[in-house]
Amino acid sequence: MNYKFSIIIPAYNCEAFIGETVGCLLSQTLKDIQIIIVEDGATDSTADIIRDYPSKHKNITVINQPNGGVSSARNHGIEYAEGTYTLFLDSDDLITSDTLEKIYNRMEEKKADMAIFRMRRFGFGSEDDNPVAKELSEEEYIDCFDKRLIWNFLLGNKAFRTSMLKNSDVRFPATRYSEDGAFNMSFIYRLSPVITGVPGAVAKYRRCDPEKHPSVTQSISMIYVEDFIRSLDIVKAEAEIALERDNIKDKDEYKQELTVKTYCTLMNEFYRLLWGADDETLAFISQKCRELHSQMTAEKLKFCDDKYKELGLALASKKEIADVPFLSVKVRSNASEGFLKSMYHQSLPMFELLMKNIPEETHENIHPVSDKPKGKITISLSGRKSVDSRLFRVIFFLKVNTKLGILPPFAIKHCAFLFLKFKK
């Protein structure tokens, strides 16, 4: 059958979501689609859930493979793609009902080889659109060296011409972080595709509560950090070749943007989670951030320092960080396990806890309540229930960036709780 679209879904331990994801595809207004599910050695009931799909739906293909990771599963799926265009969808994500039809019509109209559309986050936290993806989706044509592409490594909001992809050697690298960015940018740099935006199409990225379902992008380990660096090294090497080949002006400015992108991801996606890392990983992040600092122009350096002023320069150990907290938190009662977990999922990690009863297994930033607070602002929390992972960061910006900063700490804390209540 001549399908208009192939959708490739890697499926690993996704029993809670895979039915909803497949359902959103079966209800698409565009019916000439092929759904390829690559079962990646799941250890839950995923394989049982999807086993009967092909007998019930002629356009669904299920491929079983030993666990090889998301890159391996997607690459395997490409071999089976028969549609004019291909889209990759994670097993817990969704697309709106007319998205494939809108993408197909736009790509046909513009004779495009690649399309970019909106990406909306839903689930844990507020529901909102990725601003860069939204901007790009509104463009009729997008230049291959548009710097906004560097800030939109997302995969689920992109579609590719299948023949161009299958006839190339562009595939997902065997990394476990930013493999999507390396894939997207390799497709762009090597093949110079015609790229269009599709303003009416929407992919929906599920954000899970990090305490209940931590994802790769909400985790930190040396493996993920090193894989991120490898993925960005692929992007930088591909960019170097393409910039020279196409004789692009302002090569240095473009390379600076890649340096800034690397730095920002290290700070935002890894350094923010520093309490979940060991000191070896933290020292590695700090070293890489300092190397990137040294490669930036004064203008880019100021941009980064302003963007992450609540984090400062990446420090190399938890002890260093514990010595310079922004926020001191007095815990009024015995801390529950849920409360402590929520503390170490905070997106502002520069804090200390002052407690009466200190747990046996503790971090360097927990001190007796009798100690003098070292933070610039001191608040008190009950310690009985978990708090929103954004709380400390909101307190920082209320204190530093708004007129509310003149209020006493307890008032700033309540303003932060009120703000987050409306951002659910």
Describe this structure as you would to a colleague.
- This protein is of the alpha/beta class and 424 residues long.
- It has three domains: 5-207, Spore Coat Polysaccharide Biosynthesis Protein SpsA, Chain A (Alpha-Beta Complex), CATH 3.90.550; 216-307; 318-422, no CATH class.
- 41% of the residues lie in helices and 17% in strands.
- It has 16 helices and 13 strands.
- The protein has helices spanning 18-26, 46-50, 53-56, 70-78, 99-110, 131-137, 162-166, 179-191, 222-245, 251-270, 279-295, 298-307, 318-322, 337-343, 391-401, 409-422; strands at 5-11, 33-40, 60-65, 85-88, 94-95, 114-123, 128-129, 158-161, 195-207, 327-331, 351-355, 366-368, 377-381.
- Strands 1, 2, 3, 4, 5, 6, 7, 8 and 9 form a nine-stranded mixed sheet that branches. Strands 12-11-10-13 form a four-stranded parallel sheet.
- Strand 6 and strand 7 form a beta hairpin.
- Helix 8 packs parallel to helix 9, helix 9 (222-245) runs antiparallel to helix 10 and helix 10 runs antiparallel to helix 11 (279-295).
- It is globular, with a radius of gyration of 23 Å.
- The model has no long low-confidence stretch (mean pLDDT 93).
Q: What is the terminal separation in angstroms?
A: 45 Å
Poorly predicted tracts of residues: none
Largest sheet: 9 strands, mixed
Q: What structural class results from the helix and strand content?
A: alpha/beta
